[in-house]
Amino acid sequence: MAEATPSGSGGPIHVSPPPPDGILTVSGGVGGITVQLEELDVGAGKLDRLAARLASIEAELSGTWQELGSYQNQPRSTGTAALIAVGEARDALLRVRLELQRISSQVRSCRRDYDIAESAAHTQWMLGLSDPDVELQKHVDFWRTGFLNGDAMEMLVANAVTNLPLLKSLVEGINPALRPGAVTARQQERVPIDLDSTPAGLLERVRLVEERGSGYIEVIEVDNRGAKAYVVVVPGTQVHDEDNGTNPFDLAGIADALGSSSRQVNAGVLQALRAAGARPGADVVAVGYSQGGIHAMNLAADREFLKEYDMKYVLTAGSPISRITPPPDVSTLHLEHRTDWVPGSDGVANRDARNQVTVTVTNDLYVRGGEKAGLGPGHNLGGYQEAARLVAASKDPSLMQSTAVLGGVLGAGGAATATRFSLAKPPPPVLPRERRDPSSGRPQPGAR
């Protein structure tokens, strides 16, 4: 938080991130550095305006003091005393004005010093350098888990991911058959549920959807004091040979998410919301794990989606979403683990913004010999559910405000209706294989 020494002491004013909350490190939100700087800028402006008003009054007092000069030889009670009183008042105003200007200058110096430090940190990052403690933690986490941690992955990837849309367009331009087809949503079942509307409860819906099968999403209808709100639940990456390339959440789904802003999946989600009965203008909460979190954030930034529905909140877990900027009126909460390389795979850290809160879990994780760790112990949905429970219990102001927004949209949970949809895309084209003579290995004329 913004800190200052007592007035008149001459000490500096500086901002600092919120203190760790147990194993949670929080950035962004109402307690984040960006908001602190915004508030300091507003405060400096108010101080400048007040100092200007005092300068005006000071000038008037100076004029009055000069006018009273002709009365200084009059009896003290009518002349000299009045002259002295006006002079002392002017001097007192001068001292107050100078103090206000000094504080305002310190506030602006704080902002300037922070910008310089950020610029230096960015230059250091561009050169592939990092703080010694961060560098040591990279090596320790790799030794414990066998995986790069989030900081190491950000440094490795850097801005390379920004070339993905260009590469995707280039490949599809060379071979139009590789362009993904439109995603369609087919309703499968509609069931009553008892919804836990906390962040941990919403991540439990992700787990249940992933258990349901490949390509499934869920649209949950919630009645919050007579107003209908909807939760869109999107799974993580699913790789199954039996899908034959028709699952929108396969590896190609990552390219759609990062390279095409989830254009195909967003279209399928819109179909599902309409089929679930969501009317235009309805409030929507999007929840996603891993790849699903990218799609959820892309929904919040999709102009076509926002023309039809009012996205209020996005919850992601283990998702690389730093290059997606939601509108200021959309609140977002992002759960990451220090040892999870996936959130760092977009090359930069998440924004520190009033409407965007990032929680990094910092407890140490290990992978023992023979243990199956998947994408790493940090990229575990169960671990993120536990982190979400800690978020709900936290007294950190940014987390309290973020979860309050979620509660305002969904209420206390309880009876709700879940409609599950299977999303599918056309199978990729079968590339022709050239038939060759088994003896010579030469192509057989006319046979492909």
Task: Write up this protein.
The chain is an alpha/beta fold. The protein folds into 2 domains: 95 residues; 274 residues, no CATH class. It is 43% helix and 16% strand. The chain is built from 12 helices and 9 strands. Strands 1-8-7-6-5-4-3-9-2 form a 9-stranded mixed sheet. The longest helix has 47 residues. The termini are far apart. The mean pLDDT is 85.
Short description:
The chain is an alpha/beta fold and 448 residues long. It has helices at 33-67, 80-126, 132-145, 150-157, 164-174, 199-212, 251-259, 263-275, 291-300, 303-308, 381-393, 397-410; strands spanning 24-28, 184-195, 216-224, 227-234, 283-289, 310-317, 331-337, 356-361, 414-424.
List keywords for this structure.
448 residues, alpha/beta, 2 domains, 12 helices, 9 strands
Tell me the layout of helices and strands.
Layout: E1 24-28, H1 33-67, H2 80-126, H3 132-145, H4 150-157, H5 164-174, E2 184-195, H6 199-212, E3 216-224, E4 227-234, H7 251-259, H8 263-275, E5 283-289, H9 291-300, H10 303-308, E6 310-317, E7 331-337, E8 356-361, H11 381-393, H12 397-410, E9 414-424
Parallel strand pairs: 4-5, 5-6, 6-7, 7-8
Antiparallel strand pairs: 1-8, 2-9, 3-4, 3-9
Helix pairs in contact: 1-2, 6-11, 7-9
Q: Please tell me the overall pLDDT.
A: 85
Low-confidence stretches: none
Q: For the CA atoms, what is the radius of gyration?
A: 30 Å
**Helical content class:** 40-55%
Number of contiguous helices: 12
